Amino acid sequence: MPIVRIIYEKKGPAKFISANYISKIFERSLRRLYIPLEFSSGYTHRVKMSLGPPLAVGISGTNEVIDVHLVNRQIESCEIVENLNKILPDGLKVVDCYYLKDNEKSPPAIKSACYTIKISDKKNFEILESWKIIFQSNEFIEIEIPLEKLKHKQLFEIFGSNNVISRRLIFL
């Protein structure tokens, strides 16, 4: 069965949508477009989809990922992008979409992410040892963080909730 990978942005008002609800939004949108989705077997059938690492409420994402299992390839990936962008809520936008090759993994291997924090209050921040500073200025700081060691709560504790935080996934 073909698997389509959807790369999307979660910005603006959509950054306040939880990871659980993101999957429901995409499932409903794909159903609305009559895309032939594959369902799990068992008593309660669910759409077979894999989401990337969860993103905390209040953090923007620039290249979030969802893999969706389809019954067939009757629709082109460019049509999926165009049609989804017409019906997704404000702040959610499909950036790219493509069918996985037979040897590609689903979900994708993602070990780390780059977080960009726009700093509004000028104070010294203590960065954890496992975090790697990529860029730092008076207004921005970019940090590469291994996802297995990250709790988004730590970001909010260190930088506060009034700073703007954005995530970019690093695919292997």
Strands, helices and their partners?
Elements: E1 3-10, H1 19-32, E2 49-51, E3 60-69, H2 77-87, E4 92-99, E5 110-118, E6 132-136, E7 140-146, H3 152-159, E8 164-171
Parallel strand pairs: 3-8
Antiparallel strand pairs: 1-3, 1-4, 2-3, 5-7, 5-8, 6-7
Short description:
By secondary structure, this protein is an alpha+beta fold.
Can you describe this structure?
The chain folds into 2 domains: 3-99, Pseudouridine synthase I, catalytic domain, N-terminal subdomain (Alpha-Beta Plaits); 110-171. Helix content is 19%, strand content 34%. The chain is built from 3 helices and 8 strands, in the order E-H-E-E-H-E-E-E-E-H-E. Strands 1, 2, 3, 4, 5, 6, 7 and 8 form an 8-stranded mixed β-sheet that branches. A hairpin with an 8-residue loop joins strand 2 and strand 3. The longest helix has 14 residues, at 19-32.
Helix content: 10-25%
CATH superfamily of the largest domain: Pseudouridine synthase I, catalytic domain, N-terminal subdomain
Major β-sheet profile: 8 strands, mixed
The residue-averaged pLDDT reads: 89
One letter per element, helices H and strands E, the order comes to EHEEHEEEEHE
Keywords for this structure?
172 residues, alpha+beta, Alpha-Beta Plaits, 2 domains, eight-stranded mixed beta sheet, 3 helices, elongated
